[in-house]
């Protein structure tokens, strides 16, 4: 039996436009919750790529990560099952692109919201995670790290992709 601890790796987008933040309202096992556009990192993608994908899937907005906001860890126990989960979150900020209004949102996403910092602070009890507010506060404090802070070895792409196809070297992008 495997008893090795494995945190769930997630990615999240902190997207600001005109003093408001793009959030989602989603159905969860704990009820209706507010979250950043966020989700699990998929095999073969970098955290920045996963963040852009999740933003599109959950909000129908194009998003290009330009900075790492931070790496966060939290623990959660489901009240319905007692399941104990640790989340390791890579949060990014960046540039909001075009909206794709006809694109359906992921299953479970009820709607998108544009919320002010005060509205987000006032609804903390409805947040999916304590990291929602922490990421907001870090963003507002001006925290920004270069994307290169997260090294992604080309081997994450799978067999045959260990070398960069442009430079031929083994360094990540």
TrEMBL record:
For bias type Basic and acidic residues, the affected ranges are: 159-173
What are its E.C. numbers? 3.6.1.-
Residues forming the Nudix hydrolase domain are 4-137
Cofactor(s), by name? Mg(2+)
Q: Which GO terms describe its molecular function?
A: nucleoside diphosphate phosphatase activity; ribonucleoside triphosphate phosphatase activity; thiamine diphosphate phosphatase activity
Coiled coil, from the record: none
Question: Looking at its record, which EC class is this enzyme?
Answer: hydrolase
Q: Which CDD domains match?
A: NUDIX_Hydrolase
Which Pfam families does this one have? Answer: NUDIX
Q: Where is this region: Disordered?
A: 154-173
Q: How does it assemble?
A: Monomer.
Q: Which family does it belong to?
A: Belongs to the Nudix hydrolase family. NudJ subfamily.
Protein name, per record: Phosphatase NudJ
């Amino acid at each position: 039996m495997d008893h090795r601890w494995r945190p769930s790796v997630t990615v999240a987008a902190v997207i600001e436009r005109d003093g408001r933040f793009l959030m989602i309202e989603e159905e969860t096992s704990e009820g209706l919750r507010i979250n950043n556009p966020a989700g699990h990192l998929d095999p073969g993608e970098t955290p920045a790529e996963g963040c852009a994908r999740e933003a599109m899937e959950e909000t129908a907005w194009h998003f290009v990560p330009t900075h790492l906001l931070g790496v966060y860890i939290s623990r959660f126990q489901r009240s319905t099952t007692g399941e104990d989960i640790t989340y390791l979150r890579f949060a990014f900020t960046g540039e909001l692109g075009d909206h794709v209004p006809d694109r359906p949102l992921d299953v479970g996403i009820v709607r998108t919201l544009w919320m002010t910092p005060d509205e987000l602070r006032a609804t903390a009890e409805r947040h999916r995670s304590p990291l929602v507010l922490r990421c907001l506060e870090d963003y507002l404090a001006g925290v920004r790290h270069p994307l290169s802070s997260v090294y992604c070895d080309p081997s994450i792409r799978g067999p045959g992709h260990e070398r960069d196809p442009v430079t031929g070297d083994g360094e990540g992008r």
